[in-house]
Amino acid sequence: QAGVPYKRPMAMNAMGAEIWKKLVDGWTVQQISEVFIKEYEVSLEEIQEDIIQFQKDLATFGVEFEEYKE
Questions:
Q1: CA angle 37-27-62, nearest 5°?
Q2: CA separation (Å) from 68 to 21, 28, 65?
Q3: pLDDT at 67 over 70
Q4: Which sign, positive or negative, has the C-alpha torsion 16, 20, 21, 27?
Q5: What is the reported pLDDT for 1?
Q6: Cα–Cα separations (whole angstroms), residue 70 to 7, 37, 66
Q7: Which terminus of the chain has a lower count of CB atoms within 10 Å, N or C?
Q8: What burial letters (b/e) apply to 16-35, b meaning 16+ CB within 10 Å?
């Protein structure tokens, strides 16, 4: 059948959903990181790496944000 090929939905946990909402609202990786550092016991580098990886994962589904484009 003609049309847009099916893409499997991206599964995400609660943290991923929170990052997603903040990215959609225009938050930067730095701003999101500062919030998560206060909520979780992680280093700035670790949370930033996780957020950037999440953005890369989103990009494979065709979702890209201004701050991250490969």
A1: 110
A2: 15, 10, 6
A3: no
A4: positive
A5: 59
A6: 20, 26, 10
A7: N
A8: beebbebbeeebebeebbee
Three-class SS of residue 68?
strand
The one-letter amino acid code at 23 reads L
Q: Could you report the per-residue pLDDT of 18-27, keeping only the tens digit for each?
A: 999 999 899 9
**The two three-digit tokens of residue 36, written as one number:** 């998560």
Distance CA 7, CA 29 (A): 26
**Which value, in Å, is the radius of gyration of the alpha carbons in the chain?**
14
Contact 10/61 with Cβ under 8 angstroms? Answer: yes
Is-contact 38 20, C-beta < 8 A?
Answer: no
Instruction: Show the tokens assigned to 67.
Output: 């701050």
Q: Does 70 score more than 50 pLDDT?
A: no
